[in-house]
Amino acid sequence: MKLVKRIALVAHDNCKQELLDWVRCHWIELIQYELVCTGTTGNLVGEMFQKCMLENGVEFPLNMTKLKSGPLVGDQQLGAAICNAEIDALFFFWDAMEPQPHDVDIKALLRIATLYNIIYACSRSTADLIITSPLFTNGFHFGTNEQIDKYKNRILQ
Predict the structure, then answer these.
(1) What sign does the dihedral 66-69-72-73 (CA atoms) show?
(2) Per-residue 3-state assignment (H helix, E strand, C coil) for 36-76
(3) Which residues contact 29 (CB under 8 A, 6 or more apart)?
(4) Is 50 exceeded by the pLDDT of residue 121?
(5) What is residue 6's DSSP assignment?
(6) How far is CA 34 from CA 16, 89, 96, 110, 156, in A?
(7) Please, which residues bridge with residue 89 across strands?
(8) If you ran DSSP here, which 8-state letter would residue 138 be given?
């Protein structure tokens, strides 16, 4: 079992500021994890961490992997990482009011997060509860979804 959780941070354009505000509130918690971000979100999150560290007179190494932008296959890269057990939690601040050119990729990413039973939040209030939960920080183990086992063990006629 790996010791450090890998957390994915994703935000649509209209939600990037909300994610950045959330990162600003929880940067001390987040800095202890490996982060994976899509496209522009990764650049903005990196800048926010630098700003927070500068303001607080501290410096920590930021362990972050940047994927492609969501519409340019970043959501699919992230989905593959979830399938390969490389992501422990997904914080996806998505725009529920605007259609996206890659809506099918977004739906697939949320389906995969559910199917592989990872922890995920799509709203700030849920994200706040997860990142501050002792269950999250103290090694909560989430098993695989039984749907996967049922699918693997199905009998074809």
Answers:
(1) positive
(2) EEEHHHHHHHHHHHHHHHHHHCCCCCCCEEEECCHHHCHHH
(3) 131, 132, 137
(4) yes
(5) E
(6) 20, 11, 27, 20, 40
(7) 7, 119
(8) T
Contact 70, 104 (CB under 8 A): no
**CA distances (Å), origin 154, targets 83, 89, 114, 157:** 19, 28, 20, 10
pLDDT tens, 94-118? Answer: 877 676 766 787 889 999 999 999 9
* Residue 60 token pair: 């920590």
Tell me if 93 sits within 8 A of 120, measured CB to CB. Answer: no
Selected catalytic residue, list 13, 75, 88, 149? 75
Report the pLDDT value the prediction gives residue 57, as an integer from 0 to 100: 94
103 is catalytic: no
This prediction's pTM: 0.88
89-107 per-residue burial string, b: 16 or more CB within 10 A, e: under 16: bbbbbbeeeeebebeebbe
Which tokens in the block code for residue 140? Answer: 């909560």
Structure tokens at 149: 């086992």
